[in-house]
Write a structure and sequence with these properties.
The complex is a heterodimer. By secondary structure, chain A is mostly helical. Helix content of chain A is 73%, strand content 0%. The chains are: A mainly alpha, B mainly alpha.
């Protein structure tokens, strides 16, 4: 199969999944007495209909790009980081504290606050990383535990640091804020899109290059494909496990940083509305391809912003969007396996291609 | 001394309650994973079970029918996971993630449709408590204790259990022996759905009498952790669930006695689990074929 056809195949399986999900979603809408065409029109308008809606979609996609990258990157190395939720919280907390406590010019303050958020996420991933590398503790358990510890630690810090009755940390100073588009133009109100989106896209591109064009990326894929063979080839597995988990945690930490410095400008409980778990879905839908993750995250962002408009316009409940998201992932699981609709055959390829490293190992995640 | 005894009984009693959904959920996951199908959908299956249990109890006015409804709903949804994982050979982690997302939205969607509310359903008939005086629990609690030896017996002492282990460790060999690999996996995944549904029913009809949006709040993932800590073995699963429950019950009771912020005490069970993992337990080894779809003729 030619390179182009192979790339096209991924897009095609994703598109099929979306179409199938929308089809079943329309049945759900019909059952609840809502015209699916009107509802989907509203959904599309709410997601992309004008500049504000488009920006809102991108704003909602931003944290999921980060968590998707975090989880997809770990998957590539054969690890299941179910702890993006906790790493996000830890990163958010660190960014919030440095963001309000430090009094320096913006040129120093903003980068330092961002780095603090990255370090927070990294630190939170470090414990599961070391436990996995040195003690063989399964990262699925340790990261779940770390999630709960992070949430409670966040609650504790809010109680310690709050200055008024609002359950949140003091406001991040203007010198540490990521610029929102709504702060540039009065015309674009009520959207959370900020500079964090640009950082997310840059991260995705850098990650794409690292995975596909560097020795490190080659070794990572080898490890994801077969840890034993990689070890035989002289790759130090334990060192790699730690590096991959730290970078994964750093990316999740950036999700929290974006929420704090770009959106809320404070750390508050419930700062993550399930971004860690949506990140799993987004990464899997994009088959852990960093650039693909940008698009699958935008799809989820679009469903979220469009869904709100849809429920407002047509009385359809917002939860239908969640049902559609679930169905997309379900059909992705089916169509990526190629048993349901064989796209490989569609492209007339006789050759069997080796599965890309990482994909194979994701199955099971153990 | 007396207060010590009182809080000691309190801790044991709460631990018995807290372990119930964890043990049952993890035992469910064990059946699925022993047969070679990863089940990260326990959370979603539990949530669906919790919801349908309330619906059926609401309609029939009988909590036992409610529990049956919860079990049936868990089984039905797990069939979807089985279909994707076994029939269509889909990625099992992706499928499980999808089930979790679906369950979270579907339950709220149906709650709006049936009860016309968003956050919480009206109270329904809950399970009775059986026992003597303070020592009384709802029937699902007793069932959780019963299910541990029963699961052990089924997995290690019956033909069906042997088949489950065979298709989970070496499906090719099992196939050669004439075991229907796919059929055994379907059954195992659906048993896991039934047990997750039961665990969910405990939360909605045993612990309380309502369904709340996302009421499992991560217990399904805790059950997954318990399953791995318990190394896919029923007795160890029970011990792991009970130890966690003890730590949780302990932190609840000391939070009322000692002057420590409750956010700090709330971390105790999770930190203890991490320390136990780091210090005591070695590698947990999953069933060999877990996560791999079975293709005839492939070796």
């Amino acid at each position: 199969m030619s390179q182009i056809a192979k790339k096209f195949e991924g897009v095609l399986t994703a598109a099929t999944s979306v179409m199938m999900a929308l089809l079943i979603g329309s049945i759900v809408l019909l059952v609840s007495g809502i015209n699916p065409i009107a509802a989907y029109k509203a959904l599309m308008f709410g997601a992309f209909g004008n500049l504000r809606n488009l920006f809102d979609t991108l704003g909602r996609a931003t944290p999921i790009i980060f968590t998707g990258l975090a989880i997809g990157f770990a998957f590539r190395g054969g690890m299941f980081n179910i702890g993006a939720e906790g790493q996000l919280a830890a990163g958010a907390l660190c960014a919030a504290i440095v963001g309000y406590a430090l009094k320096v010019p913006m040129i120093i303050h903003l980068p330092v606050s961002i780095m603090a958020g990255m370090a927070g996420g990294m630190a939170w991933a470090a414990i599961p990383a070391v436990l996995r590398a040195k003690k063989g503790v399964h990262e699925v358990i340790s990261t779940i535990m770390m999630n709960y510890v992070a949430i409670h630690l966040g609650g504790f810090m809010i109680e310690k640091l709050r200055t008024n009755e609002m359950p949140q940390t003091p406001d991040v100073l203007p010198t540490a804020r990521l610029l929102k588009v709504s702060e540039i133009s009065q015309a674009i109100k009520n959207t959370n899109l900020n500079l964090g989106f640009v950082i997310a896209v840059v991260c995705a591109v850098v990650l794409f290059i690292v995975i596909n064009k560097t020795v490190f990326g080659y070794e990572l894929r080898a490890m994801g494909f077969s840890p034993l063979a990689a070890e035989d080839a002289g790759i130090s597995i334990n060192k790699k496990i730690i590096t991959v988990m730290l970078l994964s945690g750093m990316l999740a930490g950036l999700a929290g940083t974006e929420r704090v410095l770009g959106v809320h400008r404070t750390y508050l409980s419930g700062i993550s509305t399930n971004y860690g778990f949506e990140g799993i879905a987004v990464a899997l839908l994009a088959k852990n391809n960093p650039v693909g993750i940008i698009f699958s995250a935008i799809l989820f962002g679009a469903l979220s912003s469009g869904g709100q408009y849809m429920s407002f316009e047509t009385n359809a409940s917002v939860d239908i969007v969640g049902i559609i998201q679930g169905l997309i992932i379900l059909f992705a699981a089916i169509s990526q396996a190629g048993e349901f609709m064989n796209f490989k055959r569609l492209f007339q390829s006789g050759k069997t291609t080796l599965p890309k490293a990482g994909e194979e190992n994701v199955k099971g995640g153990k | 001394m007396e207060t010590f005894l009182v809080s000691f009984t309190f801790i044991i009693m709460s631990a018995i309650r807290i372990q119930t959904p964890l043990t049952i959920g993890a035992l469910g996951g064990m059946f699925s994973e022993k047969s070679g199908v990863v089940n990260i959908a326990i959370e979603g299956l539990m949530l669906t079970g919790a919801f349908m249990a309330v619906v059926v109890s609401y309609v029939t006015g009988n909590a036992f029918f409610g529990v049956l409804g919860g079990v049936a709903a868990g089984t039905a949804l797990s069939f979807v996971h089985a279909l994707v994982s076994i029939r269509y050979k889909g990625n099992q982690t992706i499928s499980g993630t999808a089930i979790n997302i679906l369950a979270a939205s579907m339950t709220v969607y149906l709650m709006r449709l049936i009860f016309k509310t968003e956050g919480i359903t009206p109270p329904v008939t809950k399970l009775p408590a059986w026992g003597i005086g303070n020592f009384s629990f709802n029937p699902v609690v007793y069932l959780s204790f019963l299910l541990v030896p029963v699961s052990w017996f089924v997995i290690y002492k019956t033909r069906f259990g042997l088949h489950i282990r065979a298709v989970g460790e070496h499906p090719q060999a099992a196939d050669t022996m004439g075991i229907k690999v796919e059929k055994v996996r379907y059954l195992a995944v659906m048993i896991s759905g039934a047990l997750s549904g039961l665990a969910g029913s405990y939360l909605s009809l045993g612990d309380g009498d309502t369904f709340q949006r996302n009421m499992t709040s991560g217990r399904g993932f805790m059950a997954l952790a318990v399953l791995i800590i318990g190394k896919w073995h029923p007795i160890s699963i029970f011990i792991a669930a009970f130890l966690f429950a003890l730590a949780d019950a302990f932190q609840i009771s000391i939070a009322t006695v000692i002057n420590i912020p409750n956010q700090i005490t709330a971390m105790i069970p999770y930190v203890v689990t991490l320390i136990v993992l780091a210090g005591l337990i070695g590698k947990s080894v999953a069933p060999a074929a877990v996560g791999k779809p079975y293709n005839k003729g492939e070796r």
